[in-house]
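Re-run with default settings, no changes from the original entry. Doing this only to confirm the output is reproducible before filing.
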Amino acid sequence: MTDLSLSGGQMLDQASAILKQTQELVDQALSSLKARTSQDGRVSPAKLDKHQLVSYELALSWAECSSAGFLIAYAQRLQEQAPSAADFATRLAGFFCAEAVTTTTSRLRARPADFDLDASAINAVTGSDPAAAFLQSQLAADNAESLGESVLEREGDLGADLLDENHTMMRDTFRHFADEVVAPLAEKVHRHDLDIPDEILEPLKAMGMFGLSIPEAYGGLQEDGQEDTLGMCVVTEELSRGSLGAAGSLITRPEILSRALLKGGTEEQKQQWLPQFAVGEPLCAVAVTEPNYGSDVAGVRLKATAAEGGWTLNGAKTWCTFGGKAGVLMVLARTDPDPASRHPRLYMFLVQNPSHPGHSSDVAQNDRANLTGRASATMGYRGMHSFEKFIDDFFVPADNMMGGPEGEGQGFYLAMAGFAGGRIQTAARAVGLMRAAFERSISYAKERVVFAHPIADYQLTRVKLARMAAHLLACRQITYGVADLMDQGSGDMEASGAKLFASRTAEWFTREALQIHGGMGYAEETPVSRYFADARVLSIFEGAEETLALKVITRSLVENAA
């Protein structure tokens, strides 16, 4: 039988065992789905698309269980490296694992036939004496309340992050900047829908933030031959804690563009553009999404027509974040006029876009060639402004087609290379936003008195804080863990899983933070209302959660299933 008197190591072993059994159920369902959707030895996208609910729920389950696995691994490292400081993280790991197992098995149990699973097999995972005792002890109200009490005593400190000296220095530097510069300006930027002010932009340029994903050989801060996705995530997390819209997303666009250039740009293009991006001169924007195609990157219709010395672009893009102030747009265009044709004829262009502050832009190239734009009004994520861009007969020199002749038809793959980094960054942005909401919630819970007691004294508040702490730590650990995988040359699909889980969690998390604040949380004068509005965009941009779940995560998992 499992109980809370077990040592930390023993409890983590039990958590690992039940998590492994749960993941095996997910794997069985994926294998069955592969058998049902295969044709001529390959998974048929059309057949897989007939199982969207199952695919979506398997992606969610896989992402949540993966988060639990990364959190358990982190707690185990703490047990080895700093055993005296491991107790709290170990308790959070057990608690989160129990929730992940319960949530996943509940999904599977609700419709076992759809997953091609036997209900008895699902019940066997959670119904054995050791498993039932583990789940009961971890999810018990007394245990959750005790964890919440520890959260309050520790004032939200989740424990050692196990970063190396270099990443610790980066974290501390940008945390100080977020506290001293970003946070005091965040509310003004949000309330008045302002551009990100130079008081934020210029110091970040001087600090080298825009060069974090660019190799030293091209003027950046990244060691040549060694990516530092983890460092980028650490910085993104801290800046997002200050403000998602006014700082946390600034590195994303140059990172996406730089990854694409490093993968498929010519050496001349790398030498020309990367040193400029590294110092934030010019700023960058990504123009891939179109009004009628959303996350369907392969379906873009903006047309590129060969012209003397280059190309003429015609069409429209939407959700082009920073599309007014950015000096360069990364534009995905189609050269093949056949609407049935997919990504083989997509090209990527670097389009120079004279910077315009504010909510509109208008660039006239000649009497009939224009690049115009207007910012879309949004409920949150203000500061960078998301633009619709209208491109009419706009000429782009041949040298600005990414990759030169070898880049012909490679636009889809270059976009995907960039977006993998953007997705793990989005997970880091979600973590930073949740941290801000978490810290505010703890402070308010201690101060707000209801029925003669601070609300921190009530069991329900403590349980909320315990769940928030466990989910926050799990999201941070999958983000850090996947970033480390990416630095080793893998992890692109896992980045989608981290983005999926952290973004969904942030929406729930900020709702809980607002609820702890009660009526004051709904008032614009309280930052948690901004956190709540900002969090909603995380599951939409850098790949909507449905697209990631169906087209990226489950498809990859099914294709690689046994």
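The radius of gyration is 24 Å. The chain has a mean pLDDT of 93.
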